[in-house]
């Protein structure tokens, strides 16, 4: 195979599922395409693998279906022989987490919660990652650099340079606070890239500002600029994004397989092409035929059988990534779906305003969970069992104590019971 053919092949594999061609330096979801091609060519010529990574912050205790396309690209990169890292960010979450695309600061998690989330995510990743992929955590280097190291890191950019993030998020225009920890987040990402000597990172379009900081930081340290590959947004509906930080779209991979299969198989038909691109190796010509099929079927007659079948195929492909080598799990989920034996529905979301704050606090007692978590449709004893099983989470934290109290400074923003019920909570005093 010629050098050019090898470069073209690797480029196609690494960038499959990248967003369409965009403005400025964004070419096919890559910053920038010529730069990445040059890196691949140098790698092929020298036999030296590229350093490729993606970051996964343990802000919740499970990876989501939305993480899987990136993990699939990491596995593909490892199969090409590159040096690939699955990076968790305990230090990032302890710092305050990624503020990109958020209207307000993330809720600060305790170190115990962060560590528990990290352990669960690491355990999940070990089961679905290529054996040659490194699993690392950025606490490795941040615990070593100490206060002086953090101070040195903060001195690398000015306040005005980092403040641009507040403008980009729109918070500055709306006069909403933008914390110093949020402003400095790109520096955490920059340090990660430097430690990993990264050539390529997978991430979202909301990382463009952070990427610019990273590229400048690496250049100052005599390292080649980092390239970003941004994959398409994944959702069960058009315009929706599966996200661990949004209870409305939260779809963790530890959802029971039959329920997960059903949730995916019920996706809107107009998102089928994106799922085919992100979860299969189907040719773009064949995907194009499905696009044409979706655009021409008669919507007044319901969804045709062939479109339902392709959604089931996608659901099977997703489960095969979560349960590699366990075909019986996929067959059982498929059969349960066809037989209609699954009672699961996509997470029910409710909005609740709690008016009566007794003593300025609320309790996670069974009555509260039954009332707000299940709309009174379950007994208190059943809720106690759910709490004891760790199936109840308040603002992402598993509740094991039915008498836990939340004071004014830590009032929960949402309540989750199992995988099916997510309730946004607001307060009126």
Q: Would you mind describing this structure in some detail?
A:
With 429 residues, the chain is an alpha/beta fold. It has 17 helices and 14 strands. The strands form three sheets. The protein has a seven-stranded mixed sheet with strand order 1-2-7-6-3-4-5, sandwiched between helices. It has a five-stranded mixed sheet with strand order 8-14-13-10-11. Strands 9-12 form a two-stranded antiparallel ribbon. Helix 11 packs across helix 15 (327-339) and helix 14 (305-322) runs antiparallel to helix 15 (327-339). The protein is globular, with a radius of gyration of 23 Å.
| Sheet having the most strands | 7 strands, mixed
Fraction in beta strands: 5-15%
What is the arithmetic mean of pLDDT? 78
Tally the beta strands.
14
Low-confidence stretches: 343-380, 420-429
Helical proportion, percent range: 40-55%
- For the termini, the CA-CA separation is 70 Å
Rg for CA atoms = 23 Å
Shape: globular
Number of helices: 17
Going by CATH, the homologous superfamily of the largest domain would be: HUPs
CATH top level class name of the largest domain? Alpha Beta
Strand order of the largest sheet: 1-2-7-6-3-4-5
CATH topology grouping of the largest domain: Rossmann fold
Q: What structural category arises from helix and sheet content? A: alpha/beta
Number of domains: 3
């Amino acid at each position: 195979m010629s050098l050019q053919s090898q470069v073209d092949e690797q480029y196609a594999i690494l960038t499959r599922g990248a967003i369409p061609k965009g403005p400025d330096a964004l070419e096919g979801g890559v910053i920038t395409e010529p730069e990445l091609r040059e890196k691949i060519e140098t790698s092929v010529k020298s036999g030296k693998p590229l350093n490729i990574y993606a970051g996964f912050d343990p802000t919740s205790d499970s990876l989501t279906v939305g993480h899987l396309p990136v993990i699939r690209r990491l596995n593909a990169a490892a199969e090409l022989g590159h040096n690939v890292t699955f990076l968790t960010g305990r230090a990032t979450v302890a710092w305050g987490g990624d503020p990109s695309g958020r209207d307000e600061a993330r809720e600060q998690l305790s170190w115990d919660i962060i560590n528990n989330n990290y352990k669960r995510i690491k355990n999940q990743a070990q089961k679905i990652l290529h054996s040659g992929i490194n699993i690392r955590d950025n606490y490795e280097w941040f615990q070593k650099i100490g206060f002086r190291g953090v101070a040195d890191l903060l001195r690398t950019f000015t306040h005005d340079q980092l403040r641009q993030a507040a403008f980009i998020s729109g918070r500055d225009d709306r006069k909403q606070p933008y914390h110093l920890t949020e402003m400095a987040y790109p520096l955490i990402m920059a340090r990660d890239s430097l430690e990993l000597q990264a050539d390529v990172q997978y991430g979202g379009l909301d990382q463009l500002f952070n990427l610019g900081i990273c590229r400048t930081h690496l250049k100052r340290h005599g390292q080649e600029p980092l390239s970003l590959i941004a994959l398409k947004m994944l959702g069960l509906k058009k315009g929706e994004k599966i996200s661990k930080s949004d209870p409305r779209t939260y779809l963790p991979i530890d959802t029971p397989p039959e329920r997960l299969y059903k949730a995916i198989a019920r996706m809107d038909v107009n998102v089928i092409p994106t799922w085919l691109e992100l979860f299969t190796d189907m040719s773009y010509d064949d995907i194009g035929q499905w696009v044409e099929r979706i655009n021409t079927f008669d919507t007044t007659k319901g969804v045709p059988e062939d479109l339902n079948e392709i959604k089931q195929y996608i659901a099977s492909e997703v489960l095969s990534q979560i349960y590699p080598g366990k075909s019986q799990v996929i067959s059982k989920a498929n059969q349960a779906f066809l037989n209609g034996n699954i009672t699961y529905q996509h997470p029910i979301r409710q909005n609740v305003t709690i008016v009566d704050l007794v003593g300025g606090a609320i309790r996670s007692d069974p009555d509260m969970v039954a009332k707000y978590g299940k709309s009174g449709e379950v007994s208190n004893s059943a809720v106690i069992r759910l709490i004891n099983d760790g199936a109840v989470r308040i603002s992402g934290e598993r509740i094991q104590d039915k008498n836990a109290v939340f004071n004014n400074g830590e009032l929960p923003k949402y309540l989750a019971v199992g995988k099916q019920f997510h309730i946004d909570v607001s307060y009126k005093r």
